[in-house]
Amino acid sequence: MAAPMPENTGRTEAAERILAAAKHLFARDGYSSVSIRDIAEAAGVSKANVFHHFASKEELYVETLRRCCEAARALIQAFAEDQAREPAEQLRAFVRADLRRALDDPDATRLVLAEAFDASPSQARTLVNQVFGADFRRMTEIFSRGQEDGSWRQDTSPALMASLMLAANTFYTAHREVLRQLPGVDFADDPDQYADHVVDILLDGIQKEA
C-alpha cells in the first residue's frame, strides 16, 4: 500500500464510476488480481480515462481505501463531539452505529479488513494512522470516561476493552453468513440485538460493584 493521498473532493462523474468499480473489484479479487483494464471495463470507460484521473493502479487503490474510510471518520467525529450521553449509553450507540456502517458497505469493509490481514509493519502503521487509530482511540476514550466518573472498574484496560468490542464487530461483519447457519444463533439478521448483547456482556464484566 502506498502513502496516503490528500483528499480530492473535485472528482468527475467518470472518476466516481472508476472508484466504485475499483472498490468492488479490489474487494472481491484482491489488489494483485485486478488490472486497470478490468476496472476500466467495469466502469464503462477507457484505460486512458482511468490514467487521466489516476497516475497508477497503486494511486487508485490508495484513493479507494481512503474513500472506504470516510464513513468511519464521519461516525467517529460525530461521537467525539457528543459528550452529553452517559458512557454506557454512548458505547452502546457507537457499537450499533459502527456495526451498521460496516454492514451497509460490505465492499469497503472487506477491502479494509483484507488490507489489515495482509499488512506488513509499515502498512500496519499507515492503517492505524489513516483507518483504525481514530476508531480505537474513540473507544478507549469512552471506557476511560466511564472509569473517571466511577461507573466502571479501574483495574480494566481501556485498550483491551476497545479491542474486544471492535473484534466482536469485525467477527460479525466477516462471518455473518456462517452465523446464519449455526444452531442457536438468532441474531445473524439483527445487528442491533447482537451489538446490545455484546455491550451488555462486556459492561457486566467491568461494572463497578455497588
Automatic annotation (TrEMBL):
Presence of keyword Transcription regulation: yes
Domain HTH tetR-type: 12-72
Organism: Halorhodospira halophila (strain DSM 244 / SL1) (Ectothiorhodospira halophila (strain DSM 244 / SL1))
SUPFAM superfamilies registered for this protein in UniProt: Homeodomain-like (SSF46689), Tetracyclin repressor-like, C-terminal domain (SSF48498)
Record-given protein name: Transcriptional regulator, TetR family
Presence of the UniProt keyword Plastid in the record: no
InterPro entries: DNA-bd_HTH_TetR-type_CS (IPR023772), Homeodomain-like_sf (IPR009057), HTH-type_TetR-like_transc_reg (IPR050109), HTH_TetR (IPR001647), NicS_C (IPR041474), Tet_transcr_reg_TetR-rel_C_sf (IPR036271)
PANTHER family for this protein: HTH-TYPE TRANSCRIPTIONAL REGULATOR BETI (PTHR30055:SF234), HTH-TYPE TRANSCRIPTIONAL REGULATOR RUTR (PTHR30055)
Keywords of the record: DNA-binding, Transcription, Transcription regulation
